[in-house]
Predict the structure of Ectoine hydroxylase-related dioxygenase, phytanoyl-CoA dioxygenase (PhyH) family.
Amino acid sequence: MNNLVQHYPISPEAKAFYQENNYIKLKQVLSSEEVAHFNEVISAEVQRKNTQERPMEERDTYSKAFLQIFNLWTESEEVKKLVMSKRLAQIASDLMGCEQVRIYHDQALFKEAGGGITPWHADQYYWPIDTNNTITAWIPLQATPLEMGPLEFSAKSQQIVFGRDLQIGDDSEVQIKQNLRVNNFEHVIEAFDLGEVSFHSGWVFHRAGANQTDQMRKVMTVIYMDATAKLMNPKNDNQIHDWNTWCPGAKIGEVIDTELNPIAG
């Protein structure tokens, strides 16, 4: 687990690429041994906590997209080693250009064999956070070829306001896709090597394809925010839910410094 405590060099070119495009893919963030270890640990937690029993054909688009299990770092010391690691926190803060980051929350996103698309969306629609300095680490727990449904990005699309108010689902997939195409943003679809991790901002639009393999696509994600981020007055019911769930006790206009939002690293 040496990688997790070691510095990962972010070149000026890499930082500039992230600042412009609001996403980046970085190779060899984790070793093959670390990926195998966390695959085993996180898979066991997802199996323990999963409550999805409906067959795929009876689910809506969102439920077909993935099994979603939240805040595993609060229940597993092993998962906490990854989520709170110095390495991920350092990469997140370097890319955003801030001194330190806090965790907003983590979530395992396991796309089942035959699982459907993850529709176009922007994450920060859900977050009552007063800064654009938010970033998600998307950590595949296996090599992820195109047919398994890796994360896709619309480069530079953080500039687009249209679609930010759309909840993830069929409408967001159709409307955002059409708008991004009209505005001619580059649609980046690439496989992920073993140990490769992507980082994307809260406002860049992204999606994932269906899992056309017979294997589970296993991914762990961690959302980080600038350690100085404050709670803003929620703009929708989802943000009210997030306030109560992921930063309970935080006060509007004050730094989001709760037991669930410690500084990482």
